[in-house]
From TrEMBL:
Protein name listed in UniProt: 60S acidic ribosomal protein P2
PANTHER family, A to Z: 60S ACIDIC RIBOSOMAL PROTEIN FAMILY MEMBER, LARGE RIBOSOMAL SUBUNIT PROTEIN P2
Organism taxonomic ancestry: Eukaryota, Fungi, Fungi incertae sedis, Chytridiomycota, Chytridiomycota incertae sedis
GO cellular component terms, semicolon-separated: cytosolic large ribosomal subunit
Molecular function per GO: structural constituent of ribosome
Keywords: Ribonucleoprotein, Ribosomal protein
Family matches, as InterPro entries: P1/P2_N_sf (IPR038716), Ribosomal_P1/P2 (IPR027534), Ribosomal_P2 (IPR044076)
Natural source organism: Chytriomyces confervae
C-alpha cells in the first residue's frame, strides 16, 4: 500500500529512513548515557542488546555525518527548522467554533454521537483487559 501511494523510489527512501532511525536512536542513547562521541562498537552494543543486527556501512555513514558535530547543536537546529513548519491542526478548532453558532441545534447532537463511539472503542480490547 505504501509502495502504491509513494512509488518505488519514495518507498525505498521511507524504509531507509526508518532503518536509519534505529542507528540514530542508538547514537542518541549512547550520548544520553554520557558518551559524547559514540563509536561504531558502542552503537552495535546498544542495537544488539535489543536483538537488532547492525550493518557496519549504516553505522559508518551515520558516524561520518555526525563527525565533529555536537548532538545538542544538531537537535537545536532541527527544532528551529521544525518550528517554521505549519502545524496543520490549528484551523480545525477555529472552524468548529465558528460553525457551532450557525448550526444551532445540530451542535447539541454531535456530542451524543461521540459518547456512543467511546463505548464502542472500549470493546477494542477483544475481551482481554490489561489486568485480566
Amino acid at each position: 500500500m505504501l509502495h502504491a501511494a509513494l512509488g518505488e523510489t519514495a518507498t525505498q527512501e521511507v524504509v531507509g529512513q526508518c532503518i536509519e532511525m534505529k542507528y540514530i536512536g542508538a547514537y542518541l542513547l549512547a550520548t544520553l548515557g554520557g558518551n559524547e562521541t559514540p563509536s561504531a562498537k558502542d552503537i552495535k552494543k546498544i542495537l544488539s542488546s535489543v536483538g537488532i543486527e547492525a550493518e557496519d556501512s549504516r553505522i559508518e555513514n551515520l558516524l561520518s555525518e555526525l563527525e565533529g558535530k555536537n548532538i545538542a547543536d544538531i537537535i537545536a537546529e532541527g527544532t528551529k527548522k521544525m518550528a517554521s513548519l505549519p502545524a496543520g491542526g490549528a484551523a480545525a478548532p477555529a472552524a468548529a467554533g465558528s460553525a457551532a453558532p450557525a448550526a444551532g441545534g445540530a451542535a447539541a447532537a454531535a456530542p451524543k454521537k461521540e459518547e456512543k463511539e467511546e463505548k464502542e472503542e472500549s470493546d477494542d480490547d477483544m475481551g482481554f483487559g490489561l489486568f485480566d
